[in-house]
Amino acid sequence: MILLEQIAEFLDRFFAVDRFPQEEKGGVYLPSSRPIKRLGLALEPWEDLEEWAIAQRLDALFLHRPWKLKPGQLASDVGVIAYHLAFDECLTLSFNPRLAEVLSMSCVEVLGEKGGREIGMVGNIPTQTFANLCSCVTQVFGGYEQVRTVECTEVVRIAVVGAMTDTLVREASASGADVYITGQLRQPAIQALRETQMAAIAIGHRRSEVWGLQVLAEVLHQQWSNLDLVLYS
Description:
Layout lengths: L3 H12 L11 E4 L7 E5 L6 H7 L4 E4 L15 E4 L2 H7 L5 H6 L3 E5 L2 E2 L2 E2 L1 E9 L1 H12 L4 E3 L6 E7 L4 H9 L4 E4 L7 H7 L2 E4 L2 H19 L4 E5 L1
Parallel strand pairs: 2-3, 2-13, 3-4, 10-11, 11-12
Antiparallel strand pairs: 1-4, 5-8, 6-7, 8-10, 9-12
């Protein structure tokens, strides 16, 4: 029998929530003692959440952004667990070993810190054109929002960072990165991109979160092979 508290305890360890301020640790959002056979995973609540939960016969729900969940929107015995910042920093565009493996990165190093936590990574990739890298990003994330190209013949090193500032762009350049991959291209950092002659790819925050949700489902399935997982994205 799997209980909500057990899943929360496992995710506390997986996300290493002790690194985060109390208000960002996450965990049980709506308690329940109902045994869990089917767990839904979604980024945030939506209008027809209740109907979806009933149709999917969910016993509990994981939400990345739970704040718009309305009182009574779920049956009283359907529990909810929620992780926001910890999810972002562990499973999206951050220092993310799983993503580094998917992108074929090697010699991965930390790039950027916030609150004593790593928020990005830089590493080598097999030599390829920028067009090939964009194609790889499309295959992994299902697309991207925006690119900034430069006249470079090949890409051998990339930075993947969950933020974009002037300082971070220059730090990535100093670390030898040819391309800066992030969620959104931020205007205050564009000048740094121009001056460092570094290309950039903006994945889109939601695309990176959907990818993270899929990875989370894999992690949970590895921990509990008898747990049915239903993704909504």
